[in-house]
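Why do we bother with a discrete structure alphabet at all? Because it lets us treat a fold like text: something you can write down, compare, and reason about line by line. To make this less abstract, here is a complete entry for Nodulation protein S (NodS). Read it the way you would read a sentence in a foreign language you are learning: slowly, and without expecting to understand everything at once.
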Amino acid sequence: MPLSAAYFDALYRDDDDPWGYRHRWYERRKQQLTLAALPRERYRRAFEPACANGELTALLATRCDVLIACDLSGRAVALAQVRCASLPNVHIERRVLPYEWPTTPSTSTTPSADPPFDLIVIGELAYYLDPRDMTLLAERACASLSADGTLIACHWRHAFVERRQSAVAAHAALDACTELTKLVHHEEPDLLLDVWSKDGRSVAQREGLA
């Protein structure tokens, strides 16, 4: 099971930016790395689980026609809604992942009522999940991607008390989706960033340059 909402609500109780997404250079640089790694300039319908207080959400919104974001913490959702209040293409909800996925996976017996996502951004979430829940998240993410969809994941590599698995182990679960081609693999001592797509062409190939 994921960590409780109470744990994250407590983090936000005295600080609306507990990880320093706004002021730490590490976090601001990571946000720019995430945006730069996306193989397409524009996306139709995107999903950002674990949106925290909405700092990355606001940046992703500039690249998306529609962006659905969510978080386990009601306090984080409220902060993200304020941060993105001027962005009409952003919809922020409280959800418990991987269980409350916004699009019914195609493997379900119930047809999906929603169109697929052509971008899913998994940032600083997967290491909070145990291996079973991470496998479920990976399955639902892969099943929810459009035929030209992009999946990006970026995670802190250092150990911490609440971590249930490493960034490497979490990304390996996403690697296991055989429908996806890895387009970007970026490692630093502090972070791991990977990009997969159902469209295996490089950026230059997509533009007819290679």
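What the structure line is telling us, in plain words: Residues 104-112 have pLDDT under 50 and may be disordered. The two ends are 45 Å apart (CA to CA).
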